[in-house]
Specification:
Elements (H helix, E strand, L loop, with lengths): L8 H17 L2 H4 L5 H8 L1 H24 L21 H15 L13 E12 L13 H15 L12 E3 L5 E2 L4 E4 L2 E4 L12 H7 L8 H9 L4 H6 L14 E10 L10 H8 L9 H18 L1 H8 L4 E6 L5 H10 L1 H17 L2 H24 L2 E2 L2 E2 L6 H4 L1 H22 L8 H28 L7 H36 L8 H10 L6 H9 L7 H14 L12 H16 L1 H20 L17 H12 L6 E8 L7 E2 L15 E2 L10 H16 L43 E2 L1 H9 L2 E5 L4 E4 L11 E5 L21 E5 L30 E4 L7 H10 L6 H6 L3 E5 L5 E16 L5 H20 L7 E4 L3 H33 L2 H24 L6 H27 L5 H27 L8 H32 L10
Antiparallel strand pairs: 1-6, 1-7, 2-3, 4-5, 8-9, 10-20, 10-21, 11-12, 13-20, 14-15, 15-16, 16-17, 17-18, 19-20
Length: 1122
């Protein structure tokens, strides 16, 4: 049954002719309206108008140059390499910053090694891999051949001229003696092995070193040597050098890992500071003489030396088969250089847009002015963004990331699309008669500006929907892109119209410059309007009636619009003719089937989109897997054992657990992870209290012995795995005297107070009631008495050293020896260390001596200092300085202990990517922290810092935030479409179309296996912007049609708008095409996303939207006035 709105073929033909001629060539009822002053002046004074608007656009460039010369940095590249996904007010992010800033602030105990190259800070890593990278379980490098190859690679570096001046040194005695241990041999049972080179260099720490240490330097008995290592403290370190699947039952490993160490600081103390400070350092003051600038300078020097002397060998070894050697060295960052190389592809993108625009318009003048307008819009948007956009603390954003730079791709597409829209409107008006050029200009301008205004407004609102994003990177990208679209719109409705007027008078009749071959292609696409010169002369001559010949040509063109058999096929462009004669009839005939197919396709992609999950940023994914950078980072994060890079949770005492970071009003845009803010200290923190010392012991033992469920604690290695065989709690008392401690892992629970307890417990209370103490273990130091009493009993005294009976302060404790005095005794006190008691057991000839306080008022600090500085090589100090943090004055004198850190190893990897698992664990730690702090028996408050929790939090809200912004942009687009079109059906269909496009792109991302990361989140914002822009163009043209039928409106919209939108899409897609050849995965993803959403746009927008219009939109107008 026919619809009541069905009209006859003859009527439809008349309607199609009427609507097309009115929309494209100017509505007859409006074309004769007297143009305003705004339109008369540019047509009368074209050159002057062009110069004025050209200079106005050029001002953006001149202003940028002036600001740069004035030192104001109009384009701030400080954050250009950042992603901007930090959440400043997130508790996990604040804890991360507070921990790092506390380490920086409490640097008294972090003064670097004072002998040159004493610290093994810079590691060159070599990884010998057997077989192909793609086959993880195929190949065994733990063989004689693999070990010999690794040894050869190590020796190449050790024997390289210049390495002796850069290697980490082994010392017999440290500062101030600084005696280097040259060619030192160590013993391990009955095995003697080389512990340092002839120059005193630390040897590579690798399977080769351990095989030498355990007596198999020729690698002849791999199973037997592995068994020996299995029974030693080196077992965990050995496993960390192999593939994660290796164990005592599977003696195969695809990889062998070697660490070769360069040392810092490179020179003696005198090289870095003044003579006055050098003298103070020699007097024992703690002064941070080696600053970050020195460190960066020496790192650059080391990196340059490696790249000049070793890199070519590294690259050659990487390509060797069957044993490929991966490499990583300090300062190794091929990403930066590759980014620079890939960014040169942008010039190819710009060149494509120039060539296509030139091809489309047939004018170098139009093309040059159009590209000039686009770039000036970019500079103008940057000025407004940098200095004028209102923020919470003033005007302007000083935060410009790589994402903002990528907005150039957006404006290349949208800017070119707007230019094509105006150009097509102007070109289409050639076939109609106007009294004057001003009449023609007025009509074209009003129609094009209105259409572009609706699309620009919806695109701007789509970008501004990201204002609600918690991520500063996405929020600022949305703001910058919105400003950019707005500035471009202002330019295209002010500057570009006078460009067209200039072209119309001075350049239109110039010969098109191209080769004969290209010229033939251009002629096949561009308009060939008969007697253009006669028409233009007719307008300039005052609007006299057109010639009969020209009228005949125009009428012939009109007849073709309704199917005339006229033979004049040169009048109309190919694309409008194809849209009218081929595309639209096919679409209308099969519209229901097409709608069903597209809905089914959308449902499939929706299924994939619902499976989309947030994925963390992986550094190795920046480059292809065929490159060393990808493989070595992947191996470090995915193939090594968990214990080689475990997730270590920090239990911090000394920071305010409620508000650990003070941002001092820092703007979110200026927030930098790990750098912004200052630590808020806990004023109640005091380790002198016996109860506080016992609390530190209890906490460590709780996690080591009976951890709470859900905390994922790895308690198999116990407390202080590195000193498990030490009788004294010191690394000096281990098998190798702590020689390898600088490169060993911190396994298990790291508790300084447990090491201090063992070292202090020369004597412990045998009878706390009588105050008698007794020697209980053999110690490296000599106690003064094997048994003794202290009066009054320290455990009976209140804090402040107050006698509870007398109520007065005790000036001294009296030690009553119950055994003979040991000559040359040098042991210190007992643990816990009593409040305000300085334990200093002096040598004396009598059986009684006073236990007097030293100058220091911090007894724990004094005892810790005695412990850490007890050995010549200070291996204990080098190990434990990462767990105890103190503050000193500007003179280098100790002030107080500021923070104490108990480090807990978990079963998760530091590169854990499962944010759900990670956040569950972090929440369990939060619960434990709350319970511990609420327990009255604990005098100190703890703050739990879980590294990586801030990134897990970002991943957890990345998808919900993206969906929320997407829905908001769709709602805003619907409102604008509703107000602009005056028809809720058109607004609804267009909004659904935009949503379908975005859903399909999300599903496509899931099909590719990407997940939703930082890159994809920003690209989705771009998808919304383009989808809105293209869809609104078609919907606006549909509503502007005067046809009385759905089919006629659909035909008018496609014929009038299809060419412009298709050309804009081609220019955008072509601009992104060079990115397909980029090595940086980020750039290649731009191509994939551009390709996918343009495919979906022309399979959904140009099919689904048109079919819905033709099938469901009522032919009669209501609530609409055009």
């Amino acid at each position: 049954m026919k619809s009541q709105h069905t009209v006859s073929d003859e009527e439809e033909s008349r309607v199609s002719l009427s609507s097309y001629s009115q929309v494209v060539h100017g509505e007859r009822e409006r074309k004769q309206d007297e143009p305003s002053f705004f339109f008369k002046v540019p047509t009368t004074y074209r050159q002057l108008s062009f110069c004025i608007f050209f200079i106005l656009n050029l001002l953006w460039l001149l202003l940028t140059i002036a600001l740069a010369l004035g030192g104001y940095s109009p384009i701030n590249d400080e954050h250009i390499g950042e992603v901007g996904l930090e959440i400043p007010d997130d508790p996990y992010q604040q804890r991360a910053n507070a921990y790092q800033r506390a380490r920086d602030a409490a640097d008294y105990s972090l003064t670097p090694a004072k002998c040159k190259r004493e610290s093994a800070a810079n590691r060159i890593e070599l990884i010998v891999m057997k077989g192909r990278f793609e086959k993880e379980n195929n190949g065994n490098a733990l063989s004689k051949e693999g070990l010999e190859l690794l040894q050869e690679r190590e020796q190449y570096i050790l024997q390289k001229s210049g390495w002796e001046n850069r290697c980490a040194l082994v010392y017999l005695e440290t500062f101030p003696t600084c005696q280097v241990a040259k060619e030192i041999y160590a013993t391990n049972g009955n095995v003697t092995y080389l512990a340092s080179s002839v120059d005193g260099c630390m040897l590579p720490y690798s399977p080769v070193f351990l095989f030498n240490k355990y007596g198999d330097s020729n690698f002849n008995d791999i199973p037997g040597t592995v068994a020996k290592i299995r029974a030693s403290p080196d077992w965990l370190s050995f496993k960390d050098m192999l593939h994660k699947d290796f164990d005592e039952f599977n003696l195969e490993s695809k990889i062998l890992v070697s660490g070769i160490y360069a040392g810092t600081p490179r020179h003696e103390v005198e090289r870095y500071t003044t003579d006055e400070e050098v003298a103070r350092i020699y007097q024992g003051f703690s002064i941070s003489y080696y600053n970050s600038k020195d460190e960066e300078k020496e790192l650059d020097h080391l990196t340059n030396w490696i790249e000049d002397n070793l890199l070519s060998e590294f690259e050659q070894n990487f390509d060797n088969k069957p044993f490929r050697t991966l490499y990583y060295y300090p300062g190794y960052n091929p990403v930066d250089s590759q980014v620079t190389t890939d960014l040169t592809l942008i010039f190819i993108s710009i060149l494509f847009v120039i060539l296509y625009m030139n091809f489309y318009t047939g004018s170098l003048f139009i093309t040059a002015c159009g590209i000039f307008q686009i770039f000036m819009s970019f500079l103008g948007a940057n000025i407004l963004y940098r200095y004028c956009w209102p923020t919470e603390n003033g005007l302007g954003y000083n935060y410009f990331t790589l994402f903002c730079a990528l907005a150039l791709f957006i404006i290349m597409g949208i800017g070119a699309d707007d230019i094509f829209v105006y150009w097509d409107t102007w070109s289409g008006s050639m076939t109609h008669y106007y009294k004057t050029t001003a009449h023609r200009f007025a009509h074209c301008y009003q129609h094009a500006a209105s259409a572009m205004g609706v699309t620009s407004l919806t695109t701007i609102l789509a970008f501004l929907s990201n204002l609600g994003s918690p991520f500063i990177g996405i929020r600022t990208f949305g703001i910058f892109s919105a400003i950019l679209v707005a500035v471009n719109y202002l330019a295209v409705i002010t500057f570009f119209p006078v460009v067209v007027l200039m072209y119309d008078k001075f350049f239109q009749h110039k010969q098109y410059w191209c080769t004969p071959c290209v010229n033939r292609c251009c002629a096949a696409i561009r308009r060939k309007l008969p007697k253009k010169i006669a028409y233009d002369q007719n307008i300039e001559n005052g609007g006299a009636p057109m010639s009969a010949e020209l009228n005949t040509k125009i009428e012939s063109a009109k007849n073709k619009l309704i199917g005339s058999s006229s033979s004049d096929n040169d009048y109309e462009e190919f694309l409008p003719r194809w849209f009218r004669d081929k595309y639209t009839p096919f679409l209308l005939k099969r519209r229901k089937l097409i709608i069903a197919i597209l809905v089914a396709m959308w449902a499939v992609f929706l299924g994939f989109a619902t499976q989309l999950e947030a994925v963390p940023f992986k550094l190795y994914e920046l480059l292809p897997e065929t490159q060393n950078f990808h493989q070595v980072i992947f191996v470090q994060e995915e193939w090594k054992t968990r214990t080689s890079n475990p997730l270590q949770v920090h239990l911090l005492f000394g920071l305010d657990h409620r508000q650990p970071l003070n941002l001092h009003g820092t703007r979110p845009k200026n927030f930098v992870s790990g750098e912004t803010g200052t630590p808020e200290w806990d004023n109640r923190f005091d380790l002198d209290e016996i109860s506080a010392q016992l609390q530190m012991i209890r906490v460590a033992e709780e996690f080591a012995i009976n951890p709470r469920s859900g905390l994922k604690i790895d308690n198999q290695e116990g407390i202080n795995r590195q000193i498990v065989d030490s009788r004294t709690g010191s690394l000096e008392d281990t098998i190798d005297g702590g020689a390898s401690s600088s490169v060993q892992g911190a396994y298990g629970i790291q508790s300084l107070f447990h090491a201090l307890q063992t070292w202090e417990n020369v004597s412990i209370a045998a009878d706390s009631d009588t105050g008698e103490y007794i020697k209980v273990i053999e110690h490296s130091c000599i106690p003064c008495w094997n048994t003794f009493k202290i009066e009054p009993n320290p455990f009976d005294l209140d804090r402040g050293y107050i006698d509870p009976e007398l109520g007065t302060v005790i000036d001294a404790l009296i030690i009553n020896a119950t055994s003979n005095l040991n000559n040359d005794c040098n042991c210190y006190g007992f643990f816990p260390i009593a409040s305000d008691v300085c334990l200093y057991e002096t040598r004396a000839s009598s059986t009684e001596t006073l236990l007097k306080c030293s100058e220091s008022n911090d007894n724990v600090a004094e005892q810790i200092g005695n412990f850490l500085s007890s050995g010549f090589t200070s291996v204990d100090e080098q190990w434990w300085t990462d767990y105890i943090f103190a503050i000193g004055d500007s003179y280098g004198r100790f002030t107080r202990i500021a923070m104490y850190d108990i480090q807990v190893m978990t079963v998760l990897s530091a590169s854990e990517s499962d944010f759900k698992k990670g956040l569950r664990m972090a929440k369990k730690f939060d619960d434990w922290m709350d319970d511990h702090n609420s327990d009255s028996q604990n005098p100190l408050r703890v703050l739990v810092y879980v590294p990586g929790a801030e990134e897990w939090k970002v991943s957890s809200i990345l998808v919900p935030s993206g969906i929320q912004n997407l829905l908001l942009s769709l709602a805003l687009a619907f409102v604008v479409l509703l107000l602009a079109s005056g028809n809720y059906i058109t607004a609804t269909i267009a909004t659904i179309t935009i949503g379908m496009i975005c859903t399909c792109v999300l599903g496509f991302i899931q099909i590719l296996g990407w997940g939703l990361g930082a890159i994809e989140s920003v690209l989705i914002v771009i998808v919304v912007g383009f989808s809105v822009d293209y869809t609104v163009h078609l919907a606006d043209s549909y509503m502007a049609s005067k046809s009385l039928t759905r089919e006629g409106k659909t035909l008018d919209a496609l014929v009038h708008t299809g060419q412009s939108v298709l050309s804009g899409a081609i220019s955008t897609l072509g601009a992104s095409l060079p990115m397909f050849g980029a090595q940086i995965i980020f750039f290649s993803k731009i191509w994939y996303i551009h390709f996918s959403y343009h495919c979906f746009i022309f399979n959904i927008f140009a099919w689904f939207l048109c079919c819905c219009h033709a099938n469901y939109w009522p032919p009669g107008h209501f609530w609409y006035s055009y």
